[in-house]
Design a protein that fits this description.
2 copies of one chain form a homodimer. Chain A has one domain (about 30-165, about 175-190): Pnp Oxidase, Chain A, CATH 2.30.110. Chain A is an alpha+beta fold. The first copy, chain A, is built from 5 helices and 13 strands. The first copy, chain A, is globular and about 55 Å long. Chains A and B meet through strand 1, helix 1, helix 2, strand 2 and strand 5 of A and strand 1, helix 1, helix 2, strand 2 and strand 5 of B.
């Protein structure tokens, strides 16, 4: 049942077909709404599917941004101000969250365009999404330029965290599924993950074949 | 219902509590089994939850690896040979896939220890997991050292792809859910995502509030 696609076959694919295939095969991702505000006060909100856990001490997350060859409001605002927010869309926010990917004119805020609500907390300069069950204030820590294709990895530090503490288990694990947080694949497919199990820390003497 | 955890509160958390919290808040991820073979022929298999889509043309994925301060078989094998494989675990592979995270002695292959089956294809030097519904041959393209915490981002190029072509939609989108591919959160929680919807390409004049 398995077919092999060689490097030559992958290179020969139609550009949009390959983009959909390679994006979707990167698998299940956490969509996040990235909230920023420009130096002159214009708010921006954009959905990203490239959140990467970098480390827990200090608490660092990465975000991949496409090459800075055209206007990129989120990237420019982060580089200008050093501040951004991560906001996790729940299932009932699917439509407006996705709609933030539309190319609005720079002077139009995606908050106004999609109906999601700006929220400011603790004087953090970047806006949060009031409807999001998890909100994280991030400050830019490092920028890495990827030579292979000119994309940019922004690494930020968790500066504050706002969520319902009932989601957090005694060992620190946050049950995102209890807040109906969305997962996504590629640029347009949304999923609701069903919790299966948390497995025990694996040791060599456990659970091997007999 | 929302509680705020300040930077000071996050820094003051118990180390393992914070690790679980920050890892799990990075959200839904695609677990992949990374197959490698050392220069002297020893196979290795390890589960990673840090797969990142870097670009589609060329087809590039990133993989975050923890600091090289202790033995890291996967990292060392990739740096030595330039070749690795990505194998996607389906729901019925959850237990052996997780078990590959145990610290086996270097001379013991996780394939033998977990019962997952080595498969070689098209003379690719790194081993695939025969049971995996998606198998990707990857060649190392770039290494980025992250200064913020000494983690390493390995960027590789898709060299060949093996999967059931029935998973691929006419526009290239691969329906991983049709193969019951697992999602994960943090280091130990596994999920089965339920497909909701693929949304249309967002344009400014669509779907705004009225």
């Amino acid at each position: 049942m398995t077919t092999t696609f060689s490097l030559e076959a992958i290179q020969a694919m139609d550009r949009r077909f390959r983009a959909n295939l390679v994006n979707s095969l990167a698998g299940y991702k956490q969509p996040v709404l990235v909230g920023t505000r420009s130096a002159y006060g214009q708010t921006n909100l954009a959905i990203f599917n490239s959140l990467l856990h970098i480390g827990a001490d200090p608490a660092l997350y990465g975000l991949l941004v496409r090459p800075h060859t055209v206007r990129r409001d989120t990237l420019e605002n982060i580089l200008e101000t050093g501040a951004y927010t991560l906001n996790y869309p729940s299932v009932h926010m699917m439509q407006p969250a996705h709609q933030t990917s539309a190319k609005y004119p720079r002077e139009e805020s995606e908050f106004d365009a999609t109906g999601l609500t700006v929220e400011y907390r603790d004087d953090w300069p970047a806006p949060f999404v009031k409807e999001a069950p998890v909100q994280i204030a991030m400050s830019l820590s490092e920028r890495l330029d990827i030579q292979s294709n000119n994309t940019i990895l922004l690494i930020g530090r968790m500066n504050a965290l706002h969520l319902d503490p009932g989601l957090i288990q005694p060992d620190g694990f946050a049950e995102l599924h209890q807040a109906n947080v969305l997962a996504c694949v590629g640029l347009d497919a949304y999923y609701q993950p069903r919790f299966l199990e948390r497995l025990a820390y694996a040791r060599p003497d456990h659970d091997g074949p007999t």
